[in-house]
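ok so i was messing around last nite and threw this chain in just to see what happens. nothing serious, just curious
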Amino acid sequence: MSETSNIKPVHIIGAGLAGSEAAWQCANMGVPVVLHEMRPHVGTPAHSTDGAAELVCSNSFRSDDHEHNAVGLLHEEMRRMGSLIMREGDKAAVPAGGALAVDRDIFSQGVTKALTAHPLITIERGEIAGLPPEEWDSVIIATGPLTSDPLATAIAELTGEGELAFFDAIAPIIHTETIDMDIAWFQSRYDKQGPAGTGKDYINCPMDKAQYEAFITELIGAEYGLFKEWELPSGSKSLAEQEEDTPYFDGCIPIEIMAARGPETLRFGPMKPVGLTNPHAKNGGDEQPYAVVQLRQDNALGTLYNMVGFQTKMKWGEQTRVFKTIPGLENAEFARLGGLHRNTFINSPKLLDNTLRLHVAPRLRFAGQITGCEGYVESASVGLMTGRFAAAERLGAELQTPPDITAMGALLSHITGGANAETFQPMNINFGLFPALSRDEATKEYLNKAGKTKRAKLRGKDRKKAYSDRALNAQQAWLEDKKLAA
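result:
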């Protein structure tokens, strides 16, 4: 271990999954850490203990299949980098088929014990009620979706009130390649070209009158989920009170609320067909659809498109059923389904650099869900990267970001610039965030297996495995080159 007596500590606020992982990584690089946790002095409506990395919702880390699933790939990458969260998750595993699920108590106790026993980690209990003191020149804020009000207010004042969301109404996001372009087409309204546009910036899915009316019927009749009690704003408990009091992100109103206001509301709102002509129409392309669903590019790679104006509180199974009735989306695969819940997060693509530092105050880094990643493992992975970035900076070492073709690199790229800052919403890891496979990468293994000579398109599990193989090979080369492995 390197000499640490003259190294100033990194201060980490929040001992959730991201903060715990950041502390572990930072300390293992030889940099002292002060980990601040407000529990038990200040509680939250969701937590019941003062333990580190307490799981407040599901006990599942989702799929552990690192060959065919993006979150399983993220698991494997983190294991290769000495992740505390993955180590203790593996120790606390319970039967869950192909998923990694954990005993909550054993998991949290294991993480807490490891952090407490580390000689370079000091845990201090108490709330950081506002921005940290100026003398803390390296800080990681990992306070998650339940960031305390004083700190959240301070962050909002520092970054701008509009750059911090407390509740998000989320629209679904679809893998571009699963949209049927024999039905849908690219076009902006009136072929208008914006600052970064071409006049063909939206994917349009047309509806005739019968299809539209059937869609509205399904939309209004679908099953909807409610807030968890601890997520309710202003103590509201009834659905009517929720609709009245909820501060929807960016003024967004769920699609079902608009539909309930009248059968024509959507057709004169987000589904208005004006300025669009369907090139697939039988009369040669001059026909204006009765209604249209528009999808807008959601990442720089063009692999993901979001459904414009389709924020929803529908249950996830219902979303898949109802949205697949839209012409062109019958075979759509969703990278993220819609939702509405409390989720304090910043507009990371606008506010953070590629090592998760705040542009206006570089002494502050952010990690975990507050950056706009979604999910336990994603939060921990951003904590892992942030802890290493902070430690490297403290040691005067070169800051090395993971390759963008790895799961961690793809997630980092997305939240620090790959996503559209104007429509940024929390996101789980998925293969749509990765740079596309080149033609050679995508076909080589497939053609070898199939014994084919002509070029073909890689699909299904073969395609996912190609992404995973490429990622792990790139990570291994990166780790060996930079000597960054566990």
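not much to say yet. Residues 172-337 form a domain with the Elongation Factor Tu (Ef-tu); domain 3 fold (CATH 2.40.30.260).
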